[in-house]
Write a structure and sequence with these properties.
Length: 330
Amino acid sequence: MMPERTLNNPYRLCIAPMMDYTDRHARYLLRLLTQHTRLYTEMITATAILRGDRDYLLEFHPTEHPVALQLGGNDPQILAEAAQIGEAYGYDEINLNIGCPSDRVQAARFGACLMAEPQLIAACVATIRRRVSIPVTIKTRLGIDDQDSYEFLKRFILPVHDAGCDIFILHARKAWLMGLSPKENREIPPLDYARAYRLKQEFPHLTIVVNGGITTLDQTDAHLARCDGVMIGRAAFDNPYLLASVDQRIFNDRKAIATRVDIVNGFIPYIEAQIATGVPLARLTRHMLGLFHNVKGGRIWRRVLSEQAHRPRANVEVIRTALDKVAATI
């Protein structure tokens, strides 16, 4: 059974939560490229929200909607309290990270290792659901270590679904918890999209979003014929302009496609406002480095931003200089 290709499905295209990438500055830039794609925060531990600077961790620009808060943790009550705080800040979804394989995350007993404890995750979901009214979703892997059969995946998914989660984002690889770095875990375990498709076919009432190794919109179209949504990861930062046409192509929005220069000019007022609060220019421009990916002038663009944005008192004139140099090469 193929999923209904409804344009009202808010999960048709998502940008993956990525540490050191999907901060609020990146999400603002991404929203200039696409109005409909669902955005995710970096993973934030539930304890950090309870004990840390909540405004620093959770504040976001209103234009970022729809935007989801990804939480890490394993204590149902702590996660539920953090989720309730996230809802109060205005997030549209609470997503639990059950996919990160890093040693640090494993040491804290959350992330991918929790695939081995479906009843605990079910308890987390049920407790969060009692505290918030927004969707509670799971981002996970196909399996861990030698526990990577389809039956293992089902034994994880079904009790979590029974607890109140019906939206699952599947990174279509298993995770090796020992011996591979997070980067290697994104590349070495083989992709198995068919397992995600099989889950959707067997449980059509679930929303299944596939993630992992997706770098083109042609690939996105192919996956959308078999599941409900697609989540793109690092391709959105290596080549952010990839997203400029997704509103038209994926969501049937008839507005004109913005040019790269339009995107840059749209980002400049935000950058100026952030610099005025003390945010260094380089922290903002690093998200723009791939904007001219694989087009003439792209290397010059990256070089100017990389060499000049980190300098003391650097401001938006660095960006305007980079734009002028790109224009001169075209």
